[in-house]
């Protein structure tokens, strides 16, 4: 239970940090490129993967900051963050 609380705290802190930095609740391709340091093609590949929590609005995909942070925590715990 203590680990769950720590994880929730980390998610909350990171969500708030990103929301304040980008002044919005949803991230787009450009934002994720800045956060990860990855190129456009790799970020598109990630955003189009089945397990990535993106939403499509017209031709543009975005992801809520909360969903992005939770996805990062779930998928990137082995040290190889963006493979």
Give structural notes.
With 83 residues, the chain is α+β, with helices and mostly antiparallel strands. It has one domain (2-75): Arc Repressor Mutant, subunit A, CATH 1.10.10. The protein has helices at 2-22, 29-36, 40-48, 65-75; strands spanning 26-27, 55-57, 60-64. The chain has a three-stranded antiparallel sheet with strand order 1-3-2. A hairpin with a 2-residue loop joins β2 and β3 (60-64). α1 packs across α4 (65-75) and α2 (29-36) crosses α3.
Helix/strand layout:
Blueprint: H1 2-22, E1 26-27, H2 29-36, H3 40-48, E2 55-57, E3 60-64, H4 65-75
Antiparallel strand pairs: 1-3, 2-3
Features:
59% helix, alpha+beta, single chain, globular, 3 strands, 4 helices, Arc Repressor Mutant, subunit A
Strand arrangement across the biggest beta sheet = 1-3-2
Number of strands: 3
What's the story with the biggest beta sheet? 3 strands, antiparallel
Overall pLDDT, averaged?
88
Tally of DSSP helical segments: 4
Structural class: alpha+beta
CATH fold title? Arc Repressor Mutant, subunit A
**Helix amount, in percent?**
55-70%
CATH class: Mainly Alpha
**Overall domain count:** 1
Outline, from the CA principal axes? Answer: globular
Q: Nutshell version of this structure?
A:
The protein is α+β, with helices and mostly antiparallel strands. Helix content is about 60%, strand content about 10%.
């Amino acid at each position: 239970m203590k680990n769950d609380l720590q994880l929730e705290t980390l998610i909350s802190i990171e969500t708030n940090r990103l929301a304040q930095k980008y002044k919005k609740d949803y991230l787009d391709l450009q934002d994720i490129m800045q956060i990860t340091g990855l190129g456009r093609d790799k970020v598109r590949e990630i955003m189009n993967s089945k397990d990535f929590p993106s939403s499509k609005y017209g031709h543009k995909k975005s992801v809520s900051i909360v969903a992005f942070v939770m996805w990062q925590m779930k998928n990137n715990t082995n040290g190889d963050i963006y493979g």
